Amino acid sequence: MQSENRLFDDFVKVMNGATGTLAGMTREAEGAFRERMREWIGGLDMISRDEFEAVKAIAVAAREENHALKVRLDALEAAAAAGGAGKPKKSTTSSPPGV
């Protein structure tokens, strides 16, 4: 036998409405939080992966060039020490006037 109690029906309707409202508030809060995080992260000076890789490649090339120049300088110093220990070598590059 089923009882027709309006109090329980009204209580169930109120609870269903509250559940729907709570779910909507949760979705709205999540959306607001995500938007705040996007604004905060967007305000940071972050670089993209492509920019990082480009700068990394430039640094590697500069390091390799530096090493090659060091080897060349060491060879020139060794040649200068072996060839003319007391005489300074004449520079092949011209310096600007007044320097």
Could you explain how this protein is built, in words?
The protein has 99 residues and is mainly α. The protein has 2 domains: 11-46; 47-81. The chain is 74% helix and 0% strand. It starts with 5 loop residues before the first helix and ends in a 16-residue tail after the last helix. The relative contact order is 0.04.
Helix count from the secondary structure assignment: 2
Helix content: over 70%
Classify the secondary structure makeup into a structural class.
mainly alpha
For the largest beta-sheet, the strand count, sense and barrel status come to: none
Order of helices and strands: HH
> What is the mean predicted local confidence, pLDDT?
84
User: Low-confidence segments, ≥5 residues, pLDDT <50?
Assistant: none
Specify the overall morphology.
Answer: rod-shaped
User: C-alpha Rg, in Å?
Assistant: 38 Å
> How far do the termini sit from each other?
112 Å
- Could you give the count of β-strands? 0
Count of folded domains: 2
Beta content comes to under 5%
